[in-house]
Amino acid sequence: MVSIDHKTGVFRKSSYDPEEWLAWKDDVLAFNKASFNEIVERLERWYGVEFVIKRSVPITDGFTGHYKNPSLKVVLEGMSFSSDFKFSIKGDSVMIY
User: Fold this and answer.
1) What secondary structure letter does DSSP report for 23?
2) How far is CA 87 from CA 12, 16, 80, 93, 96, in A?
């Protein structure tokens, strides 16, 4: 897989899990040891929301999970349980504390 950082123009070659990256076509969100930042980017695109991180301590856990046609709240509840953060959803804005 090749990805590009649109800010820097740098290309990055990496391996990928086809199930994780193609699951969207079946309304499945799939993560395999994904970083919090990777998940935030995918959730912003999936749900059309913007995340605002107000937490002073970074979330460094990797996340693995499969969600069939999930609500944003369900995904965040699972993540918050395992990584001990709080969140609120207001319109198209998600606050992480």
Assistant:
1) G
2) 32, 29, 8, 10, 5
Distance, in Å, from the CA atom of 30 to the CA atom of 22, rounded to the nearest integer, reads: 9
Per-residue pLDDT tens digits for 47-60 = 999 999 998 888 88
The answer to whether the CB of 67 falls within 8 A of the CB of 31 is: no
CA 89 – CA 75 distance, rounded (Å): 12
Look at residues 50, 37, 40 and name the one whose alpha carbon lies nearest to residue 75.
Answer: 40
Tokens 């504390």 sit on residue: 97
Per-residue pLDDT tens for 1-48? 888 988 999 999 987 777 766 777 788 888 888 899 999 999 999 999
> 78 pLDDT exceeds 80?
yes
How far, in Å, CA of 92 to CA of 81, rounded? 22
For residues 93 and 84, give the distance between their C-alpha atoms in angstroms, rounded to a whole number.
20
